[in-house]
Amino acid sequence: MLCIFLVAIVTGGNTGIGFVTARELARNNAHVFIASRSKDRAEPAVELIKKETKKDAVEFLQLDLKSLNSVKRAAETFLARNLPLHILVNNAGIAATPFEKTSDGIQDQFGVNHIGHFLFTLLLLPTIKASAPSRIVNVSSMAYTGAPPAGIEFEKLNDPNAYTSFQRYSQSKLANILFTIELNKRLSGTNVYCNSLHPGVIKTEITRGVVANWGTWLNPIISIMSLFFLSPDDGALTQLYCATSPEIEEKNLRGKYFVPFGEVIEPIAQGKDEELAKKLWDFSENLIKEKLGDDIFSKSYA
Ligand SMILES: NC(=O)c1ccc[n+]([C@@H]2O[C@H](COP(=O)([O-])OP(=O)(O)OC[C@H]3O[C@@H](n4cnc5c(N)ncnc54)[C@H](OP(=O)(O)O)[C@@H]3O)[C@@H](O)[C@H]2O)c1
C-alpha cells in the first residue's frame, strides 16, 4: 500500500477501526484528516498517530454527524483548504443505541450512520471527482441482514415504537450499502471507486450503544465474547483494502460489497435492490433540503 501525496478523510478516525485506518493511511504517507465529533477524543488520537508513524500530516476535522449544520461546516472547512481528496472513508457509526433524535429531528442511528455521511459525501463530491482516481468507502455491517422485509421503512424511521434498536441499526447499515449502489451509478464514467463493506466482528467501543440501552451488567459478557472478536488492526483491513489496494482499479471493483478480508460477495436481495436505493437517495436528499434549504446540493453534481 502506497499513498504518496494522497489526501484522506476518515470519519470516526479517533478510535476503533477508524483509528487504525487513519494510522495506516498516515504511515503510508497520506495526509489524513480525522473527522470526529470530539476534540478531546480526537486530538490524543492525532498525537498518537504522529508519534507511532513519525508522520506529521495528520489533522483533526470537527464533524458531528448528529448535526447537519456541523456536517456542512466540516465539509466547508475542508474545502476551504483547497486540497484534493483521494480517499473518503465513511467509517463513523453508532450501534443499537437507545432511541434518540439528532439535532435535526432524525432518528439518530439513521441520522448518524446514513444521513450525515450522505450529506458529507455529496458536499465533498466535486473535489473527490476532481481528484480522481479516488475512492469512497462506506463502512456497513453484516447486521444489514436484520432489516425488516421492506428494507427501510421510511415512514416509521422516527417512530420510537416501530423497531428494536438492533433493527434500527440494521436499517442504517442497509442504507450504507444502498447509498453505495446509487452513488456508484451516478459516478459512472468517472474514476471514483465507491464500495461498501462489512469489516468483521471486532473488539472496539461499538458496544457502547448496547450497554447504554441494557445496562453495564452486560460488560463482563461482552468482555468474554470479545475474546473471539477480531482485533481493530485486523478489523480495519477490509476498509484499508477498499481505500488503497491497486486491485480496486485493476479489477474495476465499483459498487461492490466486501467482507473480511477484502473479498467481494453478493449482498442479500435487499442489499442489491436498485429501486430501494433510488428511493433512499430521493428520501435523503429531500430530507436534507427540508432541513438546510433547497440549494444545499447545488454544487454536488458539478
Ligand atoms: N466493531 C464491529 O464489530 C463492527 C461490525 C460491523 C460494522 N462495524 C462498523 O464499523 C464502523 C466503526 O465502528 P467501530 O467498531 O470502530 O466503533 P467505535 O470504536 O465505537 O468507533 C466509532 C467511531 O464513530 C464515531 N462517531 C459516533 N458518533 C459520531 C458522530 N455523531 N459524529 C462523528 N463521529 C461519530 C465515534 O466517535 P467518539 O469516539 O467521539 O464516540 C468513533 O470515532 C461503524 O460504522 C460500525 O457500524 C463495526
UniProtKB/TrEMBL annotation:
Domain of life where this protein originates: Eukaryota
Gene3D superfamilies: NAD(P)-binding Rossmann-like Domain
Keyword set, alphabetical order: Oxidoreductase, Signal
DNA-binding listed as a keyword: no
InterPro entries: NAD(P)-bd_dom_sf, SDR_fam
Classification via SUPFAM superfamilies: NAD(P)-binding Rossmann-fold domains
Signal peptide: 1-22
Protein family membership: Belongs to the short-chain dehydrogenases/reductases (SDR) family.
Designated name of the protein: 37641_t:CDS:1
